[in-house]
Structure formats: C-alpha cells, structure tokens
Write a structure and sequence with these properties.
272 residues, 38% helix, alpha/beta, Rossmann fold
Length: 272
C-alpha cells in the first residue's frame, strides 16, 4: 500500500515538474508577445485637435518609424519627445497630445518598431535605437539637448531613462515608471525565475542615478500594473532637482485631468 502511494506521489511530482518546465519554456520563447501589445486598442474615438505632421524617421538598422510632429516655435520653446507604453497605437495617446496645444511646447511622438504599422519586432535594444533615432531626427532640425524634454509613459520610461543618462536634457517626465522589468514581471509571475528568463530587463533603478536633468515623476496609488511603490522608489533614487505628482485614485492609465496637466505645464515652465 505504501509503495503504491509512493509511486503515485512520484508520478504526480514528475507531472507537476514537467508542467512547470513546459511553462518556463513557453514563457521564455513567448515572452515578448506577453510584453509588447501593438494590436491592443483602447482608442476611444478621440479627435486630434492639435496640428500635427506625420513624419517618417529612419533608424540606423534601416527601419522606418511613424511619428507625429507638432512644431510651434523651435527657437523659443522646448521640444518634447514622447515615448509611449507597451500597447496600442499613436491614436491611443490623442487625449494626452491634445493638451499640448495649450502649452508653449513643440512635440514629437514616435511609434515603436512593430507598432502602428511599422516594420520590425520590438526588443529592449530595438526600442533604445528607436528613441535615439527620434532624438537624432530632432537634432537635425536644430533641437539641441538643453532644449529637449524626454517623456516616458510606462514602458517608455525605460527608454527615456536609458537615453537620459549622462546627458544635458532640459527635463525628464516619467509617467507610471517601474524599477525594472524583472520587478514588474515578478508581480504577475511570483513563482517564475524571471530574473533568469527575461530578455528585456529595462533596469530603470540603476540608470536613474545617472540622470542629472530635472525630473517629474507621476504615478497613481491604485496602479494595478506597475505598483505605486515602484514610482515612489524611482522618485527616491532620482537626483535633484526632482518633482512628483502622486495621486490616490489613479490607476495605470492616469487621468489627464486639470491637475495632472497643470503639473506637466508647471514643470515645463520651470525649465525655461
């Protein structure tokens, strides 16, 4: 009787181990499909009210990126380059971009490789190249570092933080930043060794220390995708001058209400 029980128990353990191993292999090879969601659409039918020019930006590895460019006054106003998150198209950010028309700011938002009809597949290094290409495109228009603001949204904070290291940008805005993709993944997969499996790590907590530009960190306490504690930690690590906009009721998709828009506007004005 005991031998039969032990045999059944061993078989059960082997089945559980095999299933766990299958999950690990699946996650390793499928992980980028879980991280990047170019076809997710939360577009609510917003109409863009700020004047934009659709532009094409070519990367050093010969991928053409779609961008929306708004030029108000390159000489007198700062220029903001917007790095969006891991899901959706440029249209999903219209409700945010419309607010920039009431600010003294030029802006460029780009779609990542593999997003909004762009060729290529998103990876950590690929996104860094996309962001750098956007900055180089603006540099050719005469926008230098001291007049450039990097805005990162969620996953885009990883690109903004990476590119802002040891640079002299006018300012950095981080909306719902994470400490690292490893930390973020652990909140969803606590029983998976993500530190060993993860390909795209986006280690913001290491890189934020290398930024000396003024920083605005924005995060909501009820964020259910990137824990609020991560935004607070990033703010704590960041060098001065730094500013925060923390709210009690915002989820991961922060509400672009009058208070948030005022926080962004005030930060931009402080850079002049």
């Amino acid at each position: 009787m005991f031998k039969k029980f032990r045999k059944n128990l061993l078989q059960l353990v082997l089945i559980i181990f095999s299933l766990y191993l299958f999950v690990l292999v699946f996650l390793y090879f499928y992980q980028r499909n879980l991280l990047y969601h170019p076809n997710e659409n939360n577009y609510s039918g917003d109409k863009i009210s700020v004047k934009i020019e659709k532009v094409k930006i070519r990367t050093s590895d010969n991928i053409e990126l779609l961008g929306w460019y708004h030029e108000k006054n390159l000489k007198d106003y700062k220029t903001l380059v917007y790095f969006h998150g891991n899901a959706g198209s440029l249209e999903n950010r219209i409700h945010k971009l419309n607010h920039f028309q009431d600010m003294n700011i030029n802006f460029l938002i780009i779609a990542w490789r593999g997003f909004s009809g762009n060729n290529g597949k998103p990876t950590e290094q690929g996104l860094y190249e996309d962001g750098k290409s956007a900055i180089n495109w603006l540099a050719k228009k005469g926008v230098n570092e001291k007049n450039l603001i990097l805005y990162g949204e969620s996953l885009g904070t990883g690109v903004a933080t990476h590119l802002a290291q040891k640079k002299n940008y006018a300012g950095i805005i981080l909306e719902t930043p994470f400490t690292s993709m490893i930390d973020a993944a652990k909140t969803f997969y606590p029983y998976i060794p993500v530190n060993l499996l993860l390909k795209d790590k986006f280690e913001n907590y290491k890189k934020i220390k290398n930024i000396n530009s003024p920083i605005l960190v924005m995060h909501g306490e009820v964020d259910q995708i990137v824990p609020f504690s991560m935004g607070k930690k990033i703010y704590g690590i960041a060098n001065e001058p730094k500013y925060s906009y923390f709210t009690k009721y915002d989820n991961h998709m922060m509400e672009f209400d009058e208070r948030l828009v005022y926080a962004i506007k005030s930060f931009i004005e402080s850079l002049n």
